[in-house]
Design goal:
- The protein is of the alpha+beta class.
- The chain has a single domain, classed as Kinase associated domain 1, KA1 (TATA-Binding Protein).
- It is about 25% helix and about 35% strand.
- The protein contains two helices and five strands; from the N terminus they run βαββββα.
- A five-stranded antiparallel β-sheet has the order 1-5-4-3-2, covered by helices on one side.
- The longest helix is centred in the last third of the chain and has 17 residues.
């Protein structure tokens, strides 16, 4: 599944946040470039091998486009954690923002 987020954070800050966030949920670094990260691991039960690629690119103005691509179908636990990652990015920009899941 593909997920998108726009932020005013610097791309390096986005990738540093990804490097800190995803190992806490069981996804280990599997590759990196200057503007992307790849993680592999298992999230949730039953343990299903998963992969995730996070990429960032500058857009017009001061926005950074963040794309997360998982190999999961539907709304998996990994996909929900990607959304939590996006909330953590949003919280860095607006400290008053809180996570309020609707499910």
């Amino acid at each position: 599944m593909k997920h998108f987020h726009r932020t005013s954070l610097h791309p390096d800050a986005v990738l540093a946040t990804a490097d800190a966030f995803f190992p806490t949920i069981g996804m280990m670094p599997a590759g990196q470039t200057a503007r992307s990260r790849t993680f592999k691991g298992s999230v949730g039960t039953p343990e299903v091998p998963s992969s995730l690629t996070i990429s960032v690119k500058m857009e017009g103005g001061h926005y950074v486009f963040v794309e997360a691509d998982t190999d999961q179908m539907g709304e998996s636990r990994l996909d929900r954690n990607v959304k939590k990652f996006f909330v953590s990015l949003h919280t860095q920009v607006d400290a008053k923002h809180t996570f309020a899941p609707a499910y």
